[in-house]
Amino acid sequence: MKWKATLLMAILVFAVVASGCIGGTQETKTETTKVTLTGDFNKDVIEIGKILEKNGITEVKFSAWGSGDPNSVMRVYGIVDTAYKINRIWKQNGINVKITVTTKYDQSFKDQYQEFLSKQPLGQAGDFFVNSYAFLPTLAEEGYILDITNYAKAYQNVINDFYPNLLEAAKYKGKLYGLPQDTEARPLYVRKDVAECAGLDVTTLPEKVKAGEFTWSDVYYWAKKAKEKGCAEWGLIHRKGSAHPDLIQFIFAFNGKLYDPKTGKLVLDVPAVYKWLYVEWKFAQDGLLPKDIMSWDWAKQIHPTIVEGKTLFDIGGTWYWTEWQTKQYYHGRPLTPEEVKKWFAYTLFPAGEKGDKPVTLSQPFIWMINSKAGQLNPKYEELKDVYHALAFLMIIKASDPEINAIHSVISAHLPVRKEAAKLIKDENWLNKLKNLDLDLAPEVKDNIKDIVEKTVNPINAQFLADVSYMLEYTHLAPAHPKYPALADIFKEAVDKVLRGEMTPEEAVKFIEEKIKADKELADNVEIVGEIPKDWKFPQG
Amino acid sequence: MKDVETRPRKYEGILILAIFLATLPLLIGFSLLIISSFSKDMVTNFNFKSFHPTLENWINVFRGKLAITGGVRVNMIRIVLNTLIVALGVSGLVTLVSVMSGYALSRMDFKGRKWMIVSLMLLHAFPGVALIVGVYLLYRISFPQGQDWVRLYSFIYVIFARAALEVPMSVWLMKGFFDTIPWEFEWSGIIDGASRITVWRKIMLPLIKPGILAVALFSFLAGWQDIIYVRTFLIDQTLATFIEANIEAEYTHMPLIAAAGTLYLLPTIIFFLTAQQILLRGYSGGIKG
């Protein structure tokens, strides 16, 4: 038996040694493997190209993962275009290296995040990953995305051009983990013809809302009037679904909060949540909001009800503006830009009551870099820093005002850079975009051609310019791992008050009990305040 | 004389009606899916007013377009091909392993045979989800470093991992088929000088063709329909992961997904329409084991 054990040990030792040898390559001389960014894009790109060339690299393979609605494809094509431009710089400077980018675009951003989570440790996830800021803390905590704080120091001039609150969404524990790619606002849309029928003047409405003079009590008043006068079937339509940030705007509008930065915990702000649920309950009980809206179909009920003018108000997103122009929601056809402009006015989400402030809510998407970016390229271990610096330069270039402005116009998201916001107001530039007379990769031009045809026009650009101010009022849903669970409970409570199964008081108790029943959630949520006594809605 | 138990004909109508009613929800669901794939709007709630016939969804699916307007195009042929590779790989591997081990378990006596037969059922009871952590760990350990092999390896790994889930049941079924064949067939071969392998290949396999086909088809469908393993391990997309990643009801053009869903259902429909008789024969053999 002893010889068997010895043999087994010998095989084991051999296997260990052999496994070390398998895949081992003949040692080649490695040149410089570090790069220091200067802030001059061309210079840095050339420097990196030279380092790669000296190390025998002729091709750098990257993959870009993006997700979202079908018009938001610049989330991956921004990277493709960047590769095209870097390749051109290298070619012009006689550097024999090129970047090839493969793309993966899914419509479900949550599914893609799950896929990234499972494939990142295996080195199979995208090198570039654009997704909601809400996932950034988890990815940063796990070490799945690259800390770009040091790289960014050289490009401070670019970084400074981003809107500061959006840049904050790309940070975790004070470090920068990505660059904002886009954002949006969630306006309150007002159907102009219904408003006219009810006697509501929409021309002064945005200013009144901004000043906090037009509150949710006024929304209720006009919604009721529109219904009673037979101007519309409904007073208000809103979005649905779990964890949707649209409805939690009510919490902020009633001066509540959802997150306590001091403790790092979520907050159940009882007075604000009670007022939110009361508004929902009142609207539904009085027949101004469908009791079963949380189970309505997006394409067959929610959007057609809005575009066919069956409601006075609608809580939506900026992207609705172009979505209505590209999807057949209006009697089996899309709306024309002229129709959208003619029929819809838009304002901030009004303040809950006098003394509160109007709000909007954003869910910025962030360009993140996989912490293993470039892993599938030759000499990765030696050249890791070079590949990472190159990836950083690529998201810097993909954040060019032009790319950002194209994305904004064709997908009706808001620009994240001040320079991009200026571009979308420039009529000459818009005309160039309309004719695709811009310096873009041929592949990108080819793939966005029909989206551009449908969406690029002065009306849409004006809309984006008009709503950009809303970013000053923006709130972010907490980027907390337990927030989706809390949002699910909110959704359930909203559904119950709308259907009349619970009063607002009962629904608040229901939320508290559900939180307490889940130990992990209970540990992560602070319950503050009490149900206000003698609170009335509508007021004034 | 009939080889099955017969029942009085007066109850036949009631039985057929009961079976029809029981399967009605499924039939309705699949029918609405197929109808919607040929319509501009989804046909739901029996509202046939929303049926506006078009072939646009199918054309867009084959062109790999995710939306009516623009978007990133995916290579649908490649996705279908990936699905086929996984399904055929699982089917081939499961069939090969089960016809060999089914024969061994049926005909040969060896140490641990009884224990192995019992544990086959136990293994089948483990759902794939429960095993995924272990399988994931194994994947991480065995993962090749060289970039050239990563994509190929992910296919091989998915095929092996998914096949491993199908093997216990398939071996059990194949053992049943081999058990039904009289020993005399085998003895006559051996007496004529054939080896066990020759007997297995030339005498036994032709006799259990329906069983082999049943196992091959079921394991093909298992590979075709798998979502958890392909999503976790496969670098490329299959039809299942493509559909999953693109159902975002808010902005997805659902009739297009209905077309992709119908495409995904096709092998199952074709299989059940063409292989019913073979399956019935296959199962009668398997149960006797």
TrEMBL record, chain A:
User: Gene3D superfamilies, per this entry?
Assistant: Periplasmic binding protein-like II
Q: What InterPro entries does the record tag this protein with?
A: Bact_solute-bd_prot1, SBP
Question: Known PROSITE patterns for this protein?
Answer: PROKAR_LIPOPROTEIN
Pfam families for the chain: SBP_bac_1
Name recorded for this polypeptide:
ABC transporter substrate-binding protein
TrEMBL record, chain B:
Q: Which CDD domains match?
A: TM_PBP2
Question: InterPro entries this protein is in?
Answer: BP-dep_ABC_trans_perm, MetI-like, MetI-like_sf
Kindly state one GO CC term assigned in the UniProt record. Answer: plasma membrane
One function term, GO molecular function aspect: ABC-type maltose transporter activity
Q: Where is the ABC transmembrane type-1 domain?
A: 80-275
Name this polypeptide is given: Putative sugar transport protein
Alphabetized, the UniProt keywords read: Cell membrane, Membrane, Sugar transport, Transmembrane, Transmembrane helix, Transport
Bilayer topology term = Multi-pass membrane protein
Q: Which family does it belong to?
A: Belongs to the binding-protein-dependent transport system permease family. MalFG subfamily.
**Localization terms from the record:** Cell membrane
| TM region(s), chain numbering | 12-35, 79-105, 117-139, 151-173, 211-234, 254-275
An example GO biological process term is:
maltodextrin transmembrane transport
